[in-house]
Structure formats: C-alpha cells, structure tokens
Amino acid sequence: MGDPHKSKDTDNARRDLQNLGIRSELHLYEDGNRLMKPAAEYTFSEANRRKFCRFVRSVKFPDGFASNLSKNVAQNDSRIVGLKSHDCHVIMQRLLPVGCRSLVNKTISSTIIELCTFFNQLCARIVNVTDMVKAQDQLVIILCKLERIFPPAFFDIMIHLVLHLPEEAILGGPVYMRWMYPFERYLKRLKDYVRNAAKPEGSISEGYVVDEALTFCSRYFDDIETRFNRPDRNDDGIHRTRRLFVFESQCKPMGKQSQVYVEKNVRDRAEFYILNNSPEIETYLNQHKQELQLRACLNPDEAHRNEFADWFFEKIYAMNRVHAPEVTHELLSLASKSNIVVSSYPACIVNGVRFVTHARDVRLKTQNSGVSVPGTENEIFYGQLQEILEFSYLNDFSVVLFKCKWFRCDSRRMVTENNITSINITSESYKDDQFILASQAQQVFYVEDPSRGPNWRVVQHVNHRSIWDITEDGMSDIDLLQDNSSSNFTLFIDLGNLPQINLQRNDGDVIPIVQPFTTVSQHVNETASFLNDDDEEDVSEEDDETVEESADEETDEGNDVVDTEEDDDDHSYRTNDSD
User: Fold this and answer.
1) What is the per-residue pLDDT for 476?
2) Hey, is 279 helix, strand or coil?
3) What percentage of the chain exceeds 90 in pLDDT?
4) What does 185-227 look like in DSSP terms, one character per residue?
5) Can you tell me the distance from the alpha carbon of 293 to that of 455, in angstroms, rounded to the nearest whole number?
6) How does DSSP assign 102-135, residue by residue?
7) Is the dihedral of CA 316, 320, 326, 332 positive or negative?
8) Phi, psi (deg, nearest 5) at residue 448
9) What is the pTM of this model?
10) Which run of H or E residues covers position 502?
11) What is the Cα–Cα distance from 364 to 456, expressed in whole angstroms?
12) Please, are residues 356 and 347 in contact by the beta-carbon 8 Å criterion?
C-alpha cells in the first residue's frame, strides 16, 4: 500500500540493497539536489492503490462473517485504516489473493497467493496432518521466493515464525482452539468496565464483581430472558419432526409475508422437484419409470416429469381406500399436491443461516443471497436466491423451496486458478429447473474479480461457527471459520523456470526523499559511528591521555555517561514539572 508509516520499504532498506550490491534498479539515485527512490514492483501505484481500496469497499460479507470493511476505507480511496486483528485475518485469506492478481506482477501475486493459501489450510476446521507436513516443506520455498521479491528489511522474526506454524498445528491441533480472538474480546470487555481513568484496576475489579453477581442471579431466572437462555441471532426455532425428508425443509420466515399465485407450469415443476427429492417414495419413482419403459415412450424422462404427480396421486389414494398400512398422513398429503396459493418471504433463517433474496440483498450492507448446491457427480452449482416460497399441503404440512438463478458452470464461464474460482454471472442455465429445498442450500458469497472484468465474480464458501457435523456444548463461542478442511486447498509450488524479476515499476513513478542528499558512502560512515553518538560529546572534551586509558577505565566512563544521561533526564523532567 506504500504507507510511509508502516512500510518496510524505507530509505535505509534501499541503502541496504546498494551495500549488498543487489537489485540495482531499486537503488537510490541523485536528481539534482534531491535523492530519488524508484517505485518498486511489489508496491501499488497511486492508481492501483485506489483500485484496491475501491475493491475492498465493494465487498459485502454474509451476516456475522466479518465487520463492514467499507468503513475502514478512507473517503478518497487512498488507504485502509482502523483494521482489527480479525479484519486483517479476513483480508489476508479472502481479499488479498483476489485483489492483488491484476495489480502487481504475476510472479509476485502468485507467491502472495501461495502464502495466503497456506493460512487457509492452517485455519481450517479440520487440519490434516499430511497437509501440514507438506506445507512445512513448501513454506521454505515460498519464503525463498519472497526473498527474491522483497527487501531484506522485510524479513524479521515474525516472517520466520511462519515456518514453525505447521509443526505447531501438528502438535497442538486446529488453530481455532488456540487463537486469541476470545481473549481479545474479553480484554475489550474488561476495558469497558473502566469508568474512572485514574483508577482503572479498581474499576475493572468492581465491574467484574457486579458481572459475576448478575451472572449468578440470572441462572435462577427461567421466565426472564438472560444471556444464558437468549436465542441466537440466527436461531430458526424448533421444528416438529417429520417422517418425510421434504417436510423437514422448513425455515424461520423474516419480513412481510405475501400470498402469490404461481403459474401452473411453475408449480408443476416445483412439485415434481419435491417428489423427486423424497427418498421415501423412491420405490414409486422406479415403478413409474418401469411402466413408461413398457409403454415404449419416445421421451421417457419428459413423460416421467409430466405424468408422475398424477400417477402417484391415483396410486396412493387407491392404496388408501383399501387401508394399506404404508399410507401415512404425510404420504397422503404429499400425494394430494400443494395449494394453489403460495407464501413468499423476502428473507428466512434455515439451520442457523440467514438467507435473503437478491432483490432485497442489493439494498443491504451484507450479502446473504449467494447459494450453492452439490450435484450428483461431485460438481457444485452456484447461483443467487431469487424467491423464497412455501408450498402448503394437507394436514398443515409445508415445504420451503428456494427459487434460484443458476450460473452456467462450464469451462468457459467458470475458471479455477490457484484455489480461486471465478464465475461469469451474465450467463444463466437450468431455467426450467430453478428450485431446491431450503435445507439443501449452502451459503456462499461473491466478490468482484478485478483481473477478469465487471461480469466475473469470485466464489467464497462459508462455514458458520454454529454449524457442526457433531454438535457439542460450548461450540457456539468459536469464531466463524474460513473453511471446513485443510485438504480443500491445494498448496502447489511451481519451481519451473523462475523468471528474473525486474522489481522496478514500468510506470516511471519515483518517490522524492524529503531530506538533504547524502551519498551512500557518507551514510555508511554515519551508520558505523552511530553506536558511539551518545559518547561523542564527552569524548570530544577529553584529552588524548583519557582516550588511551585501559579497558576497565573505559567501562567506568561508559557507566558515568549513562548516569549523566539519567541525571539529564531527571533534570529535564523536573524542569517540565516546574513549567
């Protein structure tokens, strides 16, 4: 980002390059009476920095995923300020790999993406030991590639720490069980207890005692809402257990309910989808297909789709007249077809996940309209939620369906590169098969892809902190995780023909250094004597005999100098007090 207060690409870092005799294109040079610093390829130009800021401003996350990062972007789109630790976590794993692809050199961006991919693996809910063992070897190569890009001043102890993270994950387990977010939130809570800035410890102690007393009392209140019995923000309530799978597709509706009349062809497609996704009636589905084969239909699939609902209705009612034991109230209601009036909602909560229709989602600061569903051949379909429809059946049974706009997922319109999946949202497919059960939907969100154009979006998968394969007590306090398994990301390092990188930008941008010009040799001399600057004044006042004293006496003089400095500090402190 080129922030002069945070960047390690400083003037001294450039002088280090000149002292080491490497990367001559980045050396400082004299332009008249000014010292100029060439712009490096690993930094954003002014235009690219604004593009990245606008990209961050345009991102909308699902409900409860992260904070609103658009508030951290300056009004003139020049910098990003006020980020917290979790914001940096989200930017590094989600936004930086996508945003940097079109703004810096491909070699540089691919190396950054590889490092971000490792952190995606590390922070996954399920960490595979095999993935960590491979990552431990590949991280060495990634850091070597980074050393070919960034100046030596960039590599401090924190960069070296990355090498030990895989081994730490192998020994300690998944990172989400050990990271600092819960402690940081609790420290913020203790900080809020402070009412008297002069007595912070006492304020924290009193606030903690009051909180403990209220916590103790609230455990005895059953008819009053407390933080122990308060439902979650996205709690969808308690549903009655159903025997049929499709009747389990329920939701907690949100917003204004509206009654709509669905066209007959649309309702027929929706009802067939409900019947075709009912595993309890698979026997009847196969029986009808066999009858169609005996009839030698020209298009048995289309005939099955058009005729099965009526055939199933007659079949179940014929069995009900003879009091067949397998005909239950749910099966009879399913065969009786749905009501012609359908309930529609703008938003709902399904299994603890909030979904919002796209028409309403565009007016919100969050994005909850992205959906995905797995296919029968391990493929994944992506789309946007258009309508939330509840089809009512006899005996107070109902099924909630999502009507979605599905994007075309062929090789031309969906591209996966470096674990980043981009999809073209202008092409639509499956216009005659738009429905899915609400319980089948998985939430995703889409991020603009600056490298491919305005019609492309990057798919980001979501795993919410309250959804687990096996529910255990205490899991609700864990932060939202970035992915379900470390094996979902392939960390592949390409070592084939590493090109020689020209680290100077071609836009001709240079940065003038606001200081008098000094040559590198002069700077080296100043640096060599820097450690003795504190002794300069005292040594200059001594004669030649004092300089030639023994090492013990020189040590004593050094101690005297330190004492003198402490006395000077005390004197200046007293002077300020008197002022």
Assistant:
1) 41
2) helix
3) 55
4) HHHHHHHHT---TT-HHHHHHHHHHHHHHHHHHHTT-SSS--T
5) 45
6) TTS-HHHHHHHHHHHHHHHHHTSSB--HHHHHHH
7) positive
8) -60, 145
9) 0.80
10) none
11) 21
12) yes
DSSP string, 354-387: EEE-HHHHTTSSS---EEEEE-TTS-EEEEEEEE
Give the single-character DSSP code of 479.
Answer: P
pLDDT digits (tens, 9 = 90+) for 417-441: 888 999 999 989 999 899 999 999 9
Exposed/middle/buried for residue 21 (C-beta within 10 Å: 0-12, 13-18, 19+): exposed
The Cα 258–Cα 353 span in angstroms is 22
Tokens 């690409």 correspond to 9
Closest by Cα among 498, 510, 512, 446 to 105: 498
With a cut of 80, say whether residue 497 has pLDDT above it.
no
What digits encode the pLDDT tens for the residues 397-417? 999 999 999 999 888 899 998
Q: Given this model, what pLDDT does residue 299 score?
A: 87
Report d(CA 186, CA 188) in Å as an integer: 5
**Tokens read off for 128:** 């595979």
Q: Is the pLDDT of residue 57 over 60?
A: yes
Question: From the CB of residue 308, how many other CB atoms can be counted at a distance below 10 Å?
Answer: 21
pLDDT reading at 305 higher than 70: yes
Query: pLDDT tens across 240-298, in order?
Result: 788 899 998 889 999 999 999 989 999 999 999 999 999 999 999 999 999 998 887 78
Q: Specify whether the CB–CB gap between 340 and 35 falls below 8 A.
A: no
**Nearest CA to 333 among 399, 394, 242, 247?**
394
**CA 125 – CA 120 distance, rounded (Å):** 10
Q: What is the largest CA-CA distance in the chain?
A: 123
To the nearest whole number, what is the mean pLDDT of the chain? 83
Long-range contacts (CB closer than 8 Å, 24 or more residues apart) made by 500-504: 501/41, 501/105, 501/107, 501/108, 501/148, 501/149, 502/25, 502/41, 503/23, 503/25, 503/26, 503/40, 503/41, 503/42, 503/149, 504/25, 504/26, 504/38, 504/39, 504/40, 504/41
Two tokens, residue 305 = 């789709």
Encoded amino acid at 312, one letter: F
